[in-house]
């Protein structure tokens, strides 16, 4: 059970005073005995709360405590707070205003630097006030020190502050957090090193890890590779919540989420506290798994250990944020029906399209690779190229005027032996008179345009 303690410093002092005079308030004293008892008590040494030495108290002080207890009990023994507390009484009003103005204009300057500068400048006497007093003055006026880095991130004194609240989704699969953790480099068998980036998706309401995996990179396509199996296994969440890194700010994720019925959310810039739930999971993962993976020589070794830790320990351990329940039990108790996505919906949501120019040799570049089409009439035209990130083995294709045309990788050696089919010629539908030299000659001789004369005659 919790220990019953005074609620603040004032109550602690009041309890001490009641203990000093406790023997007097419990006795029935005859006339004249109170004075004698107070004189005797004034010779006894007591150790006040927080003091390093003992001391005695005068008769008037003890008498004041005695009658205060009889009239108001413990509350009357609380010491009165100074009305000028926190106002740096060693300084004049003008000096306090000067210090506060300097801190507002130069939030990165320390209290020691400010005092030293003012003393050297002659605007403040030496040892007139201590740095600790100046720091308390700044704290009492809500002017903490802001470093240059914090000021560059918009955390200056002029920024409005917002109250923070502990929040949580009502049901699992309403919100998934996503983030990347930089683990220790992977030492390969040959002696080289490769970076390790651990990607994870965490359910907000249950703290259940819906997906986790290690890659050498932190690209957007790595996140898609992690997200798709999670969608197949657990259904679709209402929202995805990420930071503002390039991994989560690409066009692929921004387009795929609305197509699949998910809302893409990003935390406010320069607000790491908003990602506290994910950071707490990274701390647990480091202490329980990542700090002990020095012997791994491949990503497969890292991944199997991550999955073992999550399934055997993290999902089964009681979680403080879940009132002692485990993430696995909290995720299993979800009341909402999971929204399952079909393979066709996933393929449609992850199909990306872009406008490309087909070269004269019927080739175009997609994802850094050169492809060609048999539809030679598309050469020189701007077409729509589509590719599905759900199936990386499938070649991209061209969508033009409601039709699809297959693309295949260019094989220049095979093309050297291929027969070139002639493109169909476009014959004119009717004969049209067209004689530029004749028209110029008519203009030079002053003749009227023949077609213009015909039209006037017809009129």
What would you say this structure looks like, in words?
This protein has about 450 residues and is an alpha+beta fold. It has 4 domains: about 10-75, no CATH class; about 95-150; about 175-330, Ribonuclease H-like superfamily/Ribonuclease H (Nucleotidyltransferase, domain 5, 2-Layer Sandwich), CATH 3.30.420.10; about 355-415, no CATH class. It contains 17 helices and 12 strands. It has helices at about 10-20, 20-25, 35-40, 60-70, 95-105, 110-120, 130-140, 150, 220-235, 250-260, 275-290, 300-315, 325-330, 345-350, 410-415, 435-445, 450-459, and strands at about 175-185, 195-205, 210-215, 240, 265, 350-355, 365, 370, 380-390, 395-400, 405, 410. Strands 3-2-1-4-5 form a 5-stranded mixed sheet, sandwiched between helices. The protein has a 4-stranded antiparallel sheet with strand order 6-9-10-11. Strands 7-8-12 form a 3-stranded antiparallel sheet, with no helix packed on it. The longest helix is centred in the last third of the chain and has 16 residues, at about 300-315. It starts with 8 loop residues before the first helix and ends with a helix.
């Amino acid at each position: 059970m919790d220990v019953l303690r005074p609620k603040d410093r004032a109550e602690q002092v009041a309890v001490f005073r009641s203990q000093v005079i406790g023997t007097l308030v419990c006795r029935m004293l005859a006339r004249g005995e109170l004075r004698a008892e107070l004189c005797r008590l004034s010779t006894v040494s007591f150790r006040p709360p927080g003091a390093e030495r003992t001391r005695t108290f005068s008769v008037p002080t003890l008498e004041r405590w005695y009658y205060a207890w009889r009239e108001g009990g413990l509350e009357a023994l609380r010491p009165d707070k100074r009305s000028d507390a926190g106002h740096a009484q060693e300084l004049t009003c003008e000096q306090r205003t000067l210090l506060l103005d300097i801190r507002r204009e130069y939030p990165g300057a320390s209290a020691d630097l400010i005092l030293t500068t003012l003393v050297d400048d002659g605007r403040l006497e030496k040892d007139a006030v201590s740095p600790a007093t100046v720091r308390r003055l700044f704290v009492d006026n809500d002017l903490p020190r802001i470093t240059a880095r914090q000021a560059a991130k918009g955390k200056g004194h002029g920024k409005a502050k917002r109250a923070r609240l502990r929040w949580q989704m009502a049901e699992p699969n309403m919100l998934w957090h996503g983030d990347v953790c930089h683990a220790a480099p992977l030492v390969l068998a040959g002696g080289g090193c490769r970076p390790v980036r651990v990607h994870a998706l965490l359910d907000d309401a249950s703290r259940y890890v819906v997906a986790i995996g290690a890659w050498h990179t932190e690209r957007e396509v790595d996140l898609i590779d992690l997200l798709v199996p999670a969608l197949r296994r657990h259904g679709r969440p209402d929202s995805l919540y990420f930071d503002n890194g390039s991994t989560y700010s690409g066009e692929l994720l921004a387009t795929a989420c609305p197509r699949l019925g998910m809302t893409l959310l990003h935390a406010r810039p320069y607000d790491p506290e908003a990602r506290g739930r994910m950071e707490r999971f990274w701390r647990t993962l480091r202490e329980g798994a990542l700090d002990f993976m020095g012997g791994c020589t491949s990503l497969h070794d890292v991944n199997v250990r991550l999955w073992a830790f999550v399934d055997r320990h993290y999902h089964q351990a009681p979680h403080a944020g879940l009132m002692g329940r485990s993430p696995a039990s909290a995720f299993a108790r979800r009341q909402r029906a999971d929204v399952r996505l079909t393979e066709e919906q996933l393929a449609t949501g992850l199909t990306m399209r872009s406008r490309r120019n087909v070269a004269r040799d019927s080739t175009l570049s997609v994802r850094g690779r050169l492809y060609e089409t048999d539809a030679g009439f598309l050469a020189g035209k701007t077409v729509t190229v589509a590719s599905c990130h759900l199936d990386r083995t499938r070649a991209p294709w061209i969508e033009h005027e409601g039709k699809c045309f297959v693309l295949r990788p260019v094989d220049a050696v095979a093309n050297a032996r291929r027969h070139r089919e002639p493109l169909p010629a476009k014959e004119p539908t009717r004969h049209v008179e067209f004689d530029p030299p004749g028209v110029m000659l008519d203009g030079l001789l002053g003749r009227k345009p023949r077609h213009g004369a015909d039209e006037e005659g017809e009129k």
